[in-house]
Amino acid sequence: GKCYPCTHGMYNDCETLKVMGFQTTGMASEYFVVDAKKALVLPKDMSWDHGAMIEPLAVAVHAVRRYSGDMHGKKAVVLGGGPIGNLVAQTAKALGAEVVLLSELSAYRLATAQKCGITTVNPNERNLLDAIVEACGKDRADVIFECIGINPTMKQAIEYARKGSHIIVVGVFGDLATVDMAAVQDHELSLLGSAMYREEDYIKAIDLVAAGKIEFETLITHRFGFREFKKGYDTIDQEKDKAMKVMINMEK
Prior knowledge:
252 residues; alpha/beta; Rossmann fold; 6-stranded parallel β-sheet; 10 helices
C-alpha cells in the first residue's frame, strides 16, 4: 500500500507483491486469515464451484479491459485455449466483441471452446492468418490476446497483428521471450502486459456470471473431496490438456 503502483490504484503491480497461496500460505492451510476488505460477497444463488471460478475469470476480465475498456464491435483473436484463454474469449464476447477467434492445438480444448460458443481454429490444420482474415475480414483483428506464454505464439501474435493494433500478453512466460521488436516498432504495435486483477475485475466477473454470459460447467472437468487433495493435483499432471479446472470440495 505504499509504493507508486499501490498509491495509484494498481496494487496488482505492487513493488513488493506477495500473492496469497503463492508467496504466502493459502486456503489449504488449517487456518487462513484475510483482510475483510479483500472478501467480496457472491450472489446467493451462485454455487461454490462457480464462486471458485470467479478468480480465473477476473484474470480474463482484467486482460480484456487492458485493451481499451470497450470491446463493443471489436474483433479479437485469442491464442491458447486453456482455462484462461477460454475465459478471455468468453469475456471478450460477453463485453460486446463482434468477432472472437480462438487458436489452439489440443483437440480436447478446441471442443471445449466450441461447447462454450467460441469460434475456433487449429493452426496445425489450417493457416492461422487465413483463418483470421476469414473471421475478421481483410483488416484482421483489433486485438490479439497471447494466453500461453511461449515464443511460437508470441511470434504469431506479432506477425499476424494488423499495423497499429494491440497485443495483450496474458500468458506467463517461464523463459526469456524472443520478441521481434523491429516489427513492433515498424508496425506501431501496442504491446501490453496483463497481470492478475483488481477488485473491479472481480466485481465485473461476478456481474457477467450473474447475467448468464459465462459458461463455467464445461470448464470444470474434475471434482475431488478434500481428503483426495493430492489426487486432484496428480490429475492435473496426468491429464494435461484434459484437466481444465479441478475442484476441491472442502466439505468432503
